[in-house]
Amino acid sequence: MLCRFQQAVVAVRMAETKNLAFIEPLRAFAALRDAMPHAVWLDGEHGSQYSILTAGPRLLLVFDGQRTFGTAADGAIWTSADDPLGLLAEALGPVQQGPAPFFGGAIGYFSYELGRRLQGQIPLLSQSPEMAVGLYDWALVIDHHAKTATLNGNAPAELPDLFTKTTAQPGAWQVAAAVEATPECDDYAQAFARVQQYLRDGDCYQVNLARQFRRKFSGDPLGVYSQFRGLAGGPFSAYLDLPGGPVLSGSPERFLSLRDGRVETRPIKGTRRRAADPIEDACLAQALLSSEKDRAENVMIVDLLRNDISRACAIGSVSVPQLCALESYATVHHMVSVVTGQIAPEHNATDLLRDCLPGGSITGAPKFRAMEIIAELEHAPRGVYCGAIGYLGYDGAMDTNIAIRTLSARDGWLDYRAGGGLVYDSEWSAEFAETEFKAAAFVDVMIKSNEGVEVEQGEKNE
Fold first, then answer.
1. Rounded to 5 degrees, what are φ and ψ at 178?
2. 379-420, pLDDT tens digit by residue?
3. What SS3 state is found at 175?
4. Cβ(138)–Cβ(155) under 8 Å?
5. E strand map for 73-195
């Protein structure tokens, strides 16, 4: 019952700020994870200004597709069959003022299957929760531009000593057998042909089709992440130690941001591999910018997202300040647009999330039909992949990624997905190759681990 959740929703005391010496976030998170349960890290070291670390939530909200389980810090458990985003909004409570970018609130993930449910479809059954978030009352905020660290909110008194005295490091890990990739060439070609038939019939204009890459492993998932982020870390990376198993994300794509009433989404559509030779690399980047096909795909998704965010935005406020610009990362070039709006007074962050999840850049257009085709052809739930990871703060702000370039670690397996948008003039071999180089960072980490090669922090696969 909702009233049981309300018993766990307490007023946050006046948020405090305590300045600390700058600390490297990987070391800080290793210490935090060892000391407190359900540690989470929104990792902005590779392209964003802030990293946000916290642990020991006062309330966990986990939605399994039927009920939401609320677990308080004292171990008490409640359940509710009510709308999970409504319960989250209730737990966040009225908007409070505090230090930016985050002094407390919800951090976690919202799966692709939850998005299907919100869009009125029946999700595929998944072993992972459809939503897993913690309600945290403090955060270590590391400013990578200013090289400062602060404790925001109601942080435990022992944390400054924990961070300054820690010797914690990520643990070792090992892999077994080879990377399993499905579908393989022939099966992918058949699925591609089916998508093309839907496109010719006018069912859809674009469908995102993904492949799965898996490998058995043992050891510390944080050790995996410490290597993966060096190869594939994007500005919206994250590590979540939440029910359902650790989630490791190197996402380059912002899904939804809300701060001071301003909404922003940054869809990626259009990708080329990076090359070691600077001249070849520049040619690949220019080829992406000059591609009419990639530009048409990007514009199609921009139109979809303009429609999605307009549901919670003030009439006439939605605009596109950046269209089809180049952004380059360690292994790929991307074509990125920016869509903005002003949130309407009667709406909030959970309303915006409800209207937009899952993101249009990883579904297709029209979104509803594209999602039906994805479910038919991929045969398995996506889970966290193509969902969203991030925070919804007590101050009403939100920042979430599109959970691409993302692994889950569960039951002795590392699970990674890579896909691309298919349109009428797509070629199956080129699209298959795109999934291969989108998965390159994951495969490279697996190869280096198998060979016993250490991957230095910040090393790039270029």
1. -110, 170
2. 899 999 999 999 999 999 999 999 999 999 999 999 999 999
3. strand
4. yes
5. 77-80, 105-110, 131-136, 138-143, 148-153, 173-182
CA dist., res. 65 & res. 323, Å (int): 37
**Residue 269 a catalytic site member:** yes
If asked whether residues 138 and 212 sit together in one domain, one would say no
* Full domain range(s) for residue 392: 173-219+252-450
Q: What is the pTM of this model?
A: 0.93
Catalytic residue selected from 45, 90, 130, 253:
253
* 459 vs 277: CA distance, rounded Å: 17
* 346 given a catalytic annotation: no
pLDDT for the residue numbered 265: 97
Say which of 45, 269, 367, 434 is annotated catalytic.
Answer: 269
**CATH code of 20's domain:** 3.60.120.10
Quick one: tokens of 161? 């000593």
In angstroms, the Cα distances linking 24 to 44, 236, 456 are 12, 17, 14
329 is a domain residue:
yes
- DSSP-assigned beta bridge partners for residue 138: 153
| One domain, residues 355 and 375 | yes
CA 274/CA 444 separation, integer angstroms: 14
* 449 neighbors 209 (Cβ within 8 angstroms): no
165, 198, 228 - which closes a domain: 165
